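As a warm-up, study this chain.
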Amino acid sequence: MGLKRIITSLFFVSLAVWVICAFNKERLPPVGDILPSLLSQPTPTSTTKGPFNVTKDGITYNIQPLYNYELYGLIMSHHNASSIDDLYHEQWKDYINTKDICVVFGDNVRTDIYQRIKFNSGSWTCWYQLDNAEDGSIFKAGSMSNNHLLTENPEINNKVIDAIKGDQIYMKGYIVKYGKGSDPKRGYDTFTLGKGECQIVYLTDFQVLNQNPWKWLSLIFKWLTLLLGGFWIVKYFFMEKILTFPQSVDSLLRHTACLFSYCRGRR
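Now compare it with the structure written out below.
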């Protein structure tokens, strides 16, 4: 078997594995893989932290902490503020709100109920769909929350962006109100966890505790597929065309010369 056939075969095998991994990279973990820390409910505590300013992308935001906050949760859906279908954050110059993540914890991860509920996230919103009344009696709205995550820290920002559905995460920071300049502050004066509502969280720490292994396999085979495809194109398309180009030019010149000589001989 020639090298060209081997490279071609490896490319299609890698492509097939990449597609399979991509379809599974946000698969939810089974109940047995849920970390014990996710069984607890997040509890806010009073804070002595005063208002402070942070700057991101040339915009200064005033942050007003309301509570200290820690949360362990399973990501069910998420929305990136920089996604192509998000018009609001750019319009409002809200560059500090990196991402919204909708999570479940506590009673909602003690059983497999979280695997039977469909979640979706949009700009500022998270909603879920119950298929039947029995699931509705098991699912607890008080054991979920939608979190608008604020950070100007590049390291924390990268971790937040990389987190996807199925990841078990830990975050720490402050529930806050925030705004820029003289604009009214966005946020909630009271802590509303227990009603399935939203929190605005300024992050001081963010960790992915347990990742879906399909995510890394998808990334590995994505780059392997691109590498094999690029190698094939360069070696067996461009290089062969380049190497045969002088011969083609030489053949064209010889045929042109013969034609010219023939035409002169006919005169």
